[in-house]
Amino acid sequence: MSRYDRAITVFSPDGHLLQVQYAYEAVRKGSPVVGVRGKDVVVIATEKRTVEKLQEERTEKKIVELDEHITLAFAGLRADARVLISRTQIECQSHRLLVEDPVTVEYITRFVAELKQKYTQSNGRRPYGISCLIGGFDYDGGPHLFQTEPSGTFYEWKASSIGRGEKTAREFLEKHYKESLVGTEKGTVKLALMCLLEVVHYGQRNLDVIVLKKGVPAEYLSQSEITTVINEIESEKDKQ
Questions:
Q1: Does the pTM of the predicted model rise above 0.85?
Q2: Nearest to residue 61, comparing CAs of 34, 85, 41?
Q3: Residue 52's beta-bridge partner residues?
Q4: Which residues contact 176 (CB under 8 A, 6 or more apart)?
Q5: 152 with 159: CB under 8 angstroms?
Q6: How far is Cα 220 from Cα 24, in angstroms, rounded to an integer?
Q7: b/e map of 138-172 (b: 16 or more CB within 10 Å)?
């Protein structure tokens, strides 16, 4: 059994690549991330890890801009994410230089997925232990939200979750997602935070929320704005 465990290129008798399955487990231990695609916005919300007393907070990022119109959030191993993000940002800039147009969201998602898939077929390597939510806008004006997995697969979603409690979060989204709710920016933000609060452990002070709109820089919500939305959510629960 151990040879199936250790070799990335050898299938187990039941058809699994066990190293890839272990990479999924690394993702499930990561901080939760929720992405929701609205009518004309994409909202990504995540729980931040508690920063050490003497640590610079700016070095602790779960959401990173790949280009001025595309943002990536991840769950899993941070070192893997740093390397993957760096290569992806370089690809975004290279595409601009060669094609003279920015990348589409699907193009850069496919690049990330293909990079991950290569690491499931080569000896002497291991899979990337991260899943990613990639959100942004193309020139057609429509918002897009994609998810990539350690195996190299990717899908487009209306709303999705990765990291700790992803099954619980996804069930919540399936139950509460409504086109009428995500028709406004406020409703999209509220749904993302409602979902994230179902799985976070450390309270509202450790949440990050970013709102993506077409043609404008990505906007991080301030702590006071996040608190205001959370108070609305809690007051609605009390009424019920």
A1: yes
A2: 85
A3: none
A4: 191, 194, 195
A5: no
A6: 28
A7: beeeebbbbbbbbbbebeebebbbbbbbbeebbeb
Task: List, for residues 65-84, the tens digit of each pLDDT value.
Answer: 999 999 999 999 999 999 99
Write the burial class of residue 189 (CB in 10 Å: 0-12 exposed, 13-18 middle, 19+ buried). Answer: buried
Structure tokens belonging to residue 8: 């990335």
Phi, psi torsion values for 34, nearest 5 degrees: -125, 135
Residue 3 in 3-state DSSP?
A: helix
Phi, psi of 110, deg, nearest 5:
-65, -40
Q: Give the number of residues written for the chain.
A: 240
Instruction: Write the pLDDT tens digit of every residue in 158-202.
Output: 999 999 999 999 999 999 999 999 999 999 999 999 999 999 875
Q: In Å, how far are 46, 137, 172, 218 from 104, measured between CA atoms? A: 24, 8, 29, 16
d(CA 32, CA 73): 10
Place of tokens 């990561």: 30
Q: Check if the beta carbon of residue 161 is closer than 8 Å to that of residue 173.
A: yes
